[in-house]
């Protein structure tokens, strides 16, 4: 797992270099079809990539996107499709039973499929109308890490290309340049924070109740962070949209609780009041923050801080905000005496 996390800058660069032209071609074909609605589906980590993608598509292209778990697609999609519809099916393996079943149902309903899969020869790729291949290479550890960030990269690249074709944004080249620098931002996290994250993971290794809060695109990061903690550390962990946590779950916060707050620079003030409350209830607080002047305010009300570079626009920030949590969960699992590569009861592909 740690080897694959540390490969992330390399595989992101490879994805940009080797998939850029294909993504542009797919964007042109999708634009020509003038789809009216897009369903995004995935399971586990891939579902979270879809949620982050929905935010990007909505923000950049003005397209209507609805994200749901692959296993729920047949239950939620209308029985009669009256609008031009595209299914964006996201799967590392392209072989999960839930994603394949959903794709087959989509084809019966005359819905075109865009497959985003790391496995070109997979069943999903063969079913698809359009295919995009994140270039992560083979991922051996059960918890998805490098496959997640390359999925995000391909989805964000596609959103930018569609925004350019739809003429919904005027600063495309600037956004594209910033997105392509994601690999450098992750390298900076490794260089500046890896050792601190390891120490903090040791400090909290005995925590068994963890809540992760995020807003906007990083609501998806909160969900993915909770999944990583469950998979690797075998703790009770839940992700929430930040203020949604106040509607009931805050009742569970006490001295046994670890709170992880994922805050972009424009949300600092809101998170300060939340952190004050959590610390008042006796909880420990880790804040994941961008390196900005504003971040000092929240840092005062945090027990520990993981900093990330502020080089990416908020819409793309899930690709960097997840990295400290991936490292934290790896080290925490090791300190708990667990094998993060092969968690008990889990398999890489659910068939």
Protein model, in words:
- There is one protein chain.
- By secondary structure, the chain is an alpha/beta fold.
- Helix content is 49%, strand content 17%.
- The chain has helices at 2-6, 8-33, 45-61, 73-76, 97-108, 123-127, 146-166, 172-180, 182-203, 218-233, 268-280, 295-299, 318-335; strands spanning 37-42, 65-69, 85-91, 112-117, 130-132, 209-214, 236-241, 257-263, 284-290, 304-308.
- The strands form two sheets. A five-stranded parallel sheet has the order 2-1-3-4-5, sandwiched between helices. Strands 7-6-8-9-10 form a five-stranded parallel sheet, with helices on both faces.
- The longest helix has 26 residues, at 8-33.
- It is globular.
Question: What labels describe this entry?
Answer:
351 residues, 10 strands, alpha/beta, 17% strand, five-stranded parallel sheet
In short:
The chain is an alpha/beta fold and 351 residues long.
